[in-house]
Amino acid sequence: MRKHFFTLVAAVCLLQYTASAQLTTVPDGGNRKASVLERIGLTDVTIHYDRPAVKGREGKIWGELVPFGLTNPGFGTSKAAPWRAGANENTKIEFSTDVNIEGKPLAAGKYGFFIEVGKDESILIFSKNNSSWGSYFYDPKEDALRVTVKQQPLDKSVEWLKYEFTNQTANSATLALQWEKWQFAFKVTVDVEKYQLQSFRSELRSNKGFDHEAWVQAAEWCADHNTNLEEALQWADYGINGAFIGQKNFRTLLVKSKILRQFNRATEADALMKEALTLGNMNEVHGYARQMLADKKIKEATDAFRANYKKYPNTFTTNMGMARAFSSEGNFKEALKYATAALAQAPDAANKSNVEGVIEKLIAGKDVNQ
To answer: Are strands 109-116 and 122-127 parallel, antiparallel or unpaired?
Structure first.
């Protein structure tokens, strides 16, 4: 009895060892594992899938290899299963924040992705079950979202199934499954502003909040996007006056001035900007003046160019600033004097070529800022 017991234990151990000793091999049928990730705003969209190949089955994929509608796979618990949108395991798609799919809301999370393929239009299915094999255990009760789209024909056949992101914008992208000569595409949209502000609020309470530049960066983003201005003004002020970290410098004052101007508090904004110009270095003030020119704020630009020249006279940068200031006022003769002086000070060939172009414009009586 004792002998039989040890023989049984030895057999079990051998089986366990054999199972754990299995080597990694190419998936059956040559299907390839793949994943693709795109960041939209601060939202990561990731899809993991297996890539089957057409393998000479042109014209026999849709409606044959991939049946139309729901089918009984003959195994598992599902009697009406959609296509697994790939091969082998579940195709999985994950969103790091809430998103909208074709305008419909979908919560952050990882989903099994299936397609009920039709002849003219198909149903995209995002299932809460992302861990099953294929669609053998598909259950419609686990659907988180269903979206109907029209598949699109492709001009060129795609041999290996793939997912691609296209049509990217600041807050959206189109994700498309492409295989053989069909494409199933859907638009993913995110609330960039919502999650950017959430990120700012979280990070400003971390170690990053011990640097005045972090507060100014958050405030500046809000100013540039004309949003969340009340809180942005608090952030900007903390960047200037915050205990232990606040700094009064060109950038901190500039950002607060921009926000005050958006509140139509022009007197306060002008006073801050006047102080900022006295604190800025040559390149900071020159960059500010160039931005004012781009915004068609000619007086602010010319005042900054002249203040910069007074502080840093007869340098390449300030001579070019004066040339732009006089040109914006239509005084091309005076502008030409400063541009000519800048030409002799050009630090490299690229800048020299740029100044030569400026001089040509001025001689022709054209504004170099246009």
So the answer is: antiparallel
| Class in CATH terms, 191-280 | mainly alpha
Sheet holding 99-101, edge to edge: 104-106, 99-101, 172-189, 152-166
Identity (one letter) of the amino acid at 253? L
Going by C-alpha positions, the residue among 255, 253, 283, 289 that lies closest to residue 271 is 253
- Measured CA to CA, the distance from residue 161 to residue 108 in angstroms comes to 26
Longest CA pairwise span in the chain (Å): 113
Distance, in Å, from the CA atom of 234 to the CA atom of 216, rounded to the nearest integer, reads: 10
**pLDDT per residue as tens digits for the range 30-74:** 678 999 999 999 999 999 999 999 999 999 999 999 999 999 999
Give the pair of three-digit tokens for residue 185.
Answer: 């595409």
Q: What is residue 131's three-state secondary structure?
A: coil
- pTM value is 0.82
Separation of alpha carbons 302 and 24, rounded Å: 69
The CATH 1.25.40 domain(s) of the chain lie at 191-280
AA letter at 1: M
- Residue 319, classified by CB atoms within 10 Å of its CB into exposed (0-12), middle (13-18) or buried (19+), is buried
Using one digit for the tens of pLDDT, what is the confidence trace for 151-195?
A: 999 999 999 999 999 999 999 999 999 999 999 999 999 999 999
Assigned token pair, 303: 């005042």
For residue 317, which amino acid is it? Answer: T
Integer angstrom CA distances of residue 101 from 78, 106, 144:
26, 7, 12
CB atoms within 10 A of CB 81: 24
